[in-house]
Each structure stands twice: as C-alpha cells, then as structure tokens.
Specification:
It is built from four helices and 28 strands. By secondary structure, the chain is of the alpha+beta class. The protein folds into three domains: 85 residues, no CATH class; 117 residues, no CATH class; 121 residues, Roll (Nuclear Transport Factor 2, Chain: A). Strands 3-21-6-7 form a four-stranded antiparallel beta sheet, with no helix packed on it. Strands 4-5-20-19 form a four-stranded antiparallel beta sheet, with no helix packed on it. A four-stranded antiparallel beta sheet has the order 12-11-16-17. Helices cover 17% and strands 33% of the residues.
Length: 385
C-alpha cells in the first residue's frame, strides 16, 4: 500500500515561543498576534515557563547539625512536622547513638513521602516535591498547643529539634524567582480589544529573553492565513504522520490542481493551468471563466489518473490500494462570486476504484484555495481526522 507524508492538517492556530517586545518602564509584554483567550497564553522568561502566579523555588531546609546523630528512645525521638496546611503530626525517629545522615534520611523518606529527603554535606535536607508558593512544610513548636509542657511528646520533640538543628516554629516556604503576570488592555493599540501581558513586579534581569506561546484566531494565524488548514509535516508518537487510501488521493490531486504547470524543476507535466487563468476572469470573458476552470480541472484529473496508472504498472511493489486509485471524475460545478469576479467556488466529485465518492470544495482566485467554511466556522472538508 503506497503512502505519503500528511501535509494537510487542521490548523491549531498556535504560536510557539514567539520572541516578544518588552517595555522595561511599564512592565508590559506585547504580542505580534492577538491571543484568542487568556487560557491559551504561556509566558517564558529566559527559557523558563512562568505560571500566572509567578515562578517560585523549591521549599528547602537543611538540618543545621551534621551527623552523627544521637537519638535515644523516650528522650529526643519524635519529630513534630506539618505538611502544607495539614494537621501537624509526630514522626518516630530512628534511634541509636551513632546514626548516619544517610540512615536517618532513608528512614524519614518512608515515613514522610510528601517530601524529598536527601543528604548534603552529612546533613539531612528536607525539600518540597515541587516549586511552591507559600508554606510547604513547617516544624510547629509543640508548646503552642501544650501551654504547660505537660505532655511527654512536647519534651521529646523539642529535644529532637535541638539534636537535628531545627528552630521550633520554623516555616519553610518557596522563594519568588520571577513575577506573576496577567492580561490587560494594550493601551498602545488603537484597537479596544487588544491585550498585553502585565508583569506584577520588576524583573531581576534587566535584559531578559521573553517569549510567548498562545493560540490566536484564524484571521490572525500565520500558519494557515485564515484558511484553517495548515500545510506542514506532523509528528505523531515520534514519527511523521502519513496518509493513505482516499486521504492520499485527495492530497495528491490537490498537488496537481494547484501546482502551476511547468513550474516543477524535474517533472514539467506536474500541475495545471488553473493558476494562470485566475487573473483573466475579471475581463470581458468572464462568462468563459467557468468553462476554462472546468477544462483546467478536468485536464489535471486526466494527468493525475494517468500518472497513478503508470505507478501501478511500473511499480507494483508499492501496492496501490483501490481506495487511493482514481476511477472516475464524476462531476464539477463552478460558481462565480457575484461580488468578486476574480473568485469562483469549485465543487468536485471524484470516485475511487473502491467506489468511494470523494467531494472536494476549493475556492479559486483566493491566495489560499482552502479558504472555505460552511458558515459555522468549521474547517473545509478534510477526510483525514
């Protein structure tokens, strides 16, 4: 079964890593194309994605005392800790007179899975599992709830804090690295609906590289130029997406139809004269335009069908399927636009050898022949996907 790389894609109108203008005075980041919604916008500063609430560091606390740790049962063997906004809890520590930092960290990893617990320079280090805005964990002073220190848990946890090198009441938070942002009205634009990104505070780097990714509307898209169809390779699961059967027939016939005849450097027969006739449809021969377009499309189909038959005869190992093999040209309808004599809508019907009818609607005279919708904003007819 023969195939080709898929070139016709429904366009996502997505702009990726666009380098943006930045005003140091106002803290505004400006778009080249306007985003369709705030939810579609992503901001990158010096290659790092910045959430809307800002970019924060990991919350991290190393014990101030290094190994060995002397932890005795009933004396200093309870660690009092609270994770985020959860209720503080007592953690039973590993006991012994010569406990290494690695041994203590391994035991605590099993008992406190919410945190990353490692060893640096013979000291145990507690760290949040993600970058954190606010209090990631804390070591409450047990005397806050036990005013008289009558509970044996109070003394055991206070002594554990002293042994490990933790200040009672310590709250560990993430540090703000980059400011947050929001979308605001672009006061530099005469268009009322245009927006820009406003940073919450000054950037630490005065000459940052700022990039934005976002989804724009079809009319502003540079990938499809409003047609809602993009022509490019598409990678799916690590390999190029391919087309076959009727999808392949459609894509190949479009190549023949909209390639100017004689323009290919090697195959001068590839294409049609359709594009050459576009400029002549506004003169006195306007009434002949549908006939010329019909002739061009018909000749392009005959050439394409002939090439496919040669492919099947000369390259049998390619195994052309019945669904991709053109069998008949069932009809063409050309409708001239009343308000634009240089433009015509062409409806084509091709039937494959598998008896599958393939409808095609293209606009001739536009900068993009796929600029057609059904009025609801949906993309033109694309069999694949």
């Amino acid at each position: 079964m023969s195939y080709d790389f898929a070139l016709e894609q429904n366009c996502s109108h997505q702009v990726l890593f666009e380098k943006s203008a930045f005003s140091l005075a106002s803290g505004h980041v400006y778009f080249e194309r306007q985003p369709a919604s705030q939810q579609s916008v992503s901001l990158y500063i010096n290659g790092t994605q910045v959430p809307q609430f800002g970019l924060y560091s990991y919350a991290e606390l190393p014990f101030s005392r290094s190994e060995p740790y002397r932890i005795h049962p009933g004396v200093n063997d309870l660690l009092y800790i609270g994770i985020e906004r959860g209720i503080p809890k007592f953690i039973q520590l590993l006991t012994g007179s010569n406990i290494k930092a690695n041994e203590l960290a391994l035991d605590l990893r099993r008992k406190i899975p919410e945190l990353q617990i490692n060893v640096v320079n013979k000291r145990v280090v507690f760290r949040s599992r993600s970058q954190f805005n606010g209090a990631a964990f804390q070591f409450p002073d047990p005397r806050w709830t036990d005013k008289t220190s009558s509970s044996p848990f109070t003394s055991r946890s206070l002594e554990a804090f002293k042994t490990l090198g933790i200040v009672p009441g310590r709250v560990v938070t993430g540090r703000k690295i980059l400011p947050g942002w929001t979308l605001v009205k672009d006061v530099t634009s005469p268009i009322e609906t245009n927006v820009a990104i406003k940073l919450d505070s000054v950037l630490p780097n005065m000459q940052p590289l700022i990039q934005v990714s976002y989804v724009t509307i079809a009319q502003n898209c540079r990938r499809c130029f409003g047609s809602r169809i993009e022509f490019d390779y598409n990678v799916v699961n690590g390999s190029y997406e391919t087309v076959k059967d009727t999808d392949l027939l459609t894509q190949e016939f479009d190549k023949f139809l909209f390639t100017r005849l004689g323009s290919h450097w090697k195959w001068s027969w590839l294409g049609s004269k359709l594009m050459d006739h576009i400029g002549g449809k506004a003169n006195s021969t306007r009434s002949l335009a549908p006939a010329m377009i019909t002739l061009d499309v018909t000749q392009a189909y005959k050439t394409y069908e002939n090439i496919k038959r040669q492919q099947e005869q000369n390259f049998p190992f390619q195994k052309i399927s019945d669904a991709e093999m053109p069998n008949s040209f069932d009809g063409i309808n050309v409708q001239s636009m009343q308000n634009d004599p240089t433009t015509a809508i062409v409806s084509i019907s091709i039937k494959s050898r598998s008896r599958t009818s393939i409808p095609l609607r293209r606009i001739i005279g536009s900068s993009n022949p796929f600029y057609l919708t059904d009025g609801s904003g949906s993309p033109p007819f694309l069999p694949r996907g």
